[in-house]
Amino acid sequence: MANISLVPAVPADSLRESISGRVLVPGDPGWAETTCGFNLAVTQRPDIVVEATCTDDVAQAVRFASDEGLRVGVQATGHGAAVAFDGGLLINTAAMTALQVDPDGRTARVAAGVRWQPAIDAAAPYGLAPLNGSSVTVGVVGYTLGGGLGPMARTFGFAADHVRRLQLVTADGVVHEVTAESEPELFWGLRGGKCQLGIVTELDFELMPVSHYFGGGLFFDAEHASAVLHAWSEWVTDLPDEANSSIALLRLPDLPEVPEPLRGRLTVHVRYLYVGAAEPGQRVLAPLRAAAPALIDTVAVTPYSAIASVHCDPADPLPVWDTSCLLTEFPTDAVDALLAVAGPGNEVPLIVTEVRRLGGAVATARTTANAVGGRDAAFSVYCVGALPPPLADITPAAGRAVVGALQPWSTGGTQINFHGSDASRPVKAWSDDARARLDALHDHHDPSQLFRFAQPYARER
């Protein structure tokens, strides 16, 4: 770490004079809300918080932190927090919710605090849709900077592939308008690099001409886990690019808000989205529907505004631990290996163990235009488990067991948005050449390592 010290007493009053949003120190009303993220297992303990309302607030806060010798972190929704931010100045961008849609240009512009559901709702009246994540409560900017692998990725690629412009505040407090023409190297690195180059305060991106999809979920009882997983692994081999799917072993809690057939038991959830008409979508899905009797079948023609119903990700904060890996293939032996550690008969605290089919536009769209890594993988695997204190060791062990069991088919890498909480694993989200370019950008734009973000990857110095 560079010579950035933690300062015990921060002159907050001087900062308040230049910030339109709130400036908070420990004990102030609102402190808990502005420092709390989505993952309750990660506790933020900054010295001071700036609740930014505009780009100028962010720039002023960065300049203040640099002058005072404070590290800088940023948080909008807190979904990406993998390590705690201790000391320094935390910029919370959740109040930056400006959002515009240009239906003629099929683009949207969002400020740093916008979440996906408002962006989806703003685009829907025009028959357009963004390349959002499976969870619509995730922030647009952080998700996109990490690549953005969503429910339509096989059809259209990563969200980062469709970014037009970024507004960036660098470590010197300077505001940059970053496009392919104005700053091509920054434009390359910010889209998929998830790197510590600065704070993105605005994002312009393309919208897709999608108003409805044919999709939803198929839920199966645990007794059919082997049959369904094997059928799915064979079925996804030749999926058309219009079809997107993942499969998950679910262990949902025994709570009233969980549908009764899924409550407190192991089930298998096939997620499916077909971009196109219902009839060809039905034909593609037919082999999976025939694999076993479904407990629940929600697949239907659905307005895109209801996209959250495909994955059914949790909307409320939880203490969790997560990990992931990328696979070159998911053959019969890999299915058996996964079932051996996370299938029926295993008492593991993993809420979700997901395998997602990649390929399609994920592999082919604009492959040299940005820093997105992991395009060569055929599948991604993601595990997330609850992490209350009694499970502090058990949940990580279960997740690592899944990754270990699938090691024979692993690419050796991850995607940065899914790298997870496992600090024992090195970040291998980019090729060596891409990582070298990102490091060079970091050296140039933040030589003192002012920024300390939720998923730090930079070299230790």
Automatic annotation (TrEMBL):
<feature type="domain" description="FAD-binding PCMH-type">
    <location>
        <begin position="42"/>
        <end position="210"/>
    </location>
</feature>
<dbReference type="InterPro" id="IPR006093">
    <property type="entry name" value="Oxy_OxRdtase_FAD_BS"/>
</dbReference>
<dbReference type="InterPro" id="IPR006094">
    <property type="entry name" value="Oxid_FAD_bind_N"/>
</dbReference>
<dbReference type="InterPro" id="IPR036318">
    <property type="entry name" value="FAD-bd_PCMH-like_sf"/>
</dbReference>
<protein>
    <submittedName>
        <fullName>FAD-linked oxidase</fullName>
    </submittedName>
</protein>
<dbReference type="GO" id="GO:0016491">
    <property type="term" value="F:oxidoreductase activity"/>
</dbReference>
<keyword id="KW-0274">FAD</keyword>
<keyword id="KW-0285">Flavoprotein</keyword>
<dbReference type="InterPro" id="IPR016167">
    <property type="entry name" value="FAD-bd_PCMH_sub1"/>
</dbReference>
<dbReference type="Pfam" id="PF01565">
    <property type="entry name" value="FAD_binding_4"/>
</dbReference>
<dbReference type="InterPro" id="IPR050416">
    <property type="entry name" value="FAD-linked_Oxidoreductase"/>
</dbReference>
<comment type="similarity">
    <text>Belongs to the oxygen-dependent FAD-linked oxidoreductase family.</text>
</comment>
<dbReference type="InterPro" id="IPR016169">
    <property type="entry name" value="FAD-bd_PCMH_sub2"/>
</dbReference>
<dbReference type="InterPro" id="IPR016166">
    <property type="entry name" value="FAD-bd_PCMH"/>
</dbReference>
<dbReference type="GO" id="GO:0071949">
    <property type="term" value="F:FAD binding"/>
</dbReference>
<keyword id="KW-0560">Oxidoreductase</keyword>
